[in-house]
Amino acid sequence: MKRMLFFLLFLALPATLQAEARVVASTGWAAALARAAGAEQVPVIAPENLQHPPDYDPKPSDLLKVRGADFVLLGGFEGFAQRLRDAAGGTARIVKVRLNNSPQTVREEVLRLGELFGTQDRAAAFVREFDREYARLAEELQRHFAARGKRAVAHKFMTVWADFAGLEPAGVFGPGPLQPGELLRLAEQKPDLVLDNAHMPTGGPIAESAGCGRAVMINFPGPGMDLLDVFRANARALMDATSE
Q1: pLDDT confidence tier of residue 7, bands split at 50, 70 and 90
Q2: Element (H or E) spanning 197, and its range?
Q3: Could you tell me the pLDDT band of residue 10, with boundaries at 50, 70 and 90?
Q4: How wide is the angle at C-alpha 72 spanned by C-alphas 164 and 35, nearest 5°?
Q5: Of 49, 65, 100, 106, which residue is least crowded by CB atoms under 10 Å?
């Protein structure tokens, strides 16, 4: 009788308490989304201290991390994406995540992953926290820039942070090397700020030619950083680059 009662109680437990989804992520960015969605232990293939994690060349021991995984998350642009798919074989579900830090994409991806992992409550709780913190940081940035010039040129992969700060777009550069004609064109826009990409920086000459500040921004979290830490770090970088 006791065994039967225990069995019935087990069946009544939510799936998230019966077994946590085993998730492996290609990079720290994908891992940050998974953790925000409620996954707890998320091994990462590319070390999170690399400047540009998608260029990582995984070792066989790295690829062994996908053994026994339920889900393998990748952005699809990683140089090792196909090797990761091959290593997963048919035992794990490959999930392509949209790695974009626009608030709408963050909300949608976190909630989608929460559905996949069976951690909807945790994902929803994160989205509520994210909305509060995003609004707080955006308000702080807008106050900061209210008395400063707002014209900004941004690396192609950093334009979302101009929206975050309420800046006025004056031009886009990258992701390839900066060409002389492009440098001249962007400097002539007389930007007040250059938003550069820490993972592939090329905006220094623009800031130097225009005589303006340069904020070096991140998309990939560093070691120990979560998704909200990326927004906090970039808010600080924006303000530091334009503080007198």
Answers
A1: very low
A2: strand 193-197
A3: very low
A4: 45
A5: 49
- Encoded tokens for 216: 């070096």
Residue 72: what are its φ and ψ, rounded to 5°?
-120, 120
Residue 84's alpha-carbon distances to 54, 59, 97, 218, in angstroms, are: 12, 11, 14, 24
If 0-12 CB within 10 Å is exposed, 13-18 middle and 19+ buried, where does residue 145 land? buried
Rounded CA separation 50/70 (Å) = 26
Sequence-separated (6 or more) residues with CB below 8 Å from residue 7: none
pLDDT at residue 107 greater than cutoff 60: yes
Angle at 68 (CA atoms; ends 79, 63), nearest 5 degrees: 25
Separation between Cα atoms, residue 15 and residue 244, nearest integer Å? 53
State whether the Cα torsion 141-142-145-147 is positive or negative: negative
Q: How far apart are CA 236 and CA 205, in angstroms?
A: 22
Question: Is the bond preceding residue 223 a cis peptide, omega within 30 degrees?
Answer: no
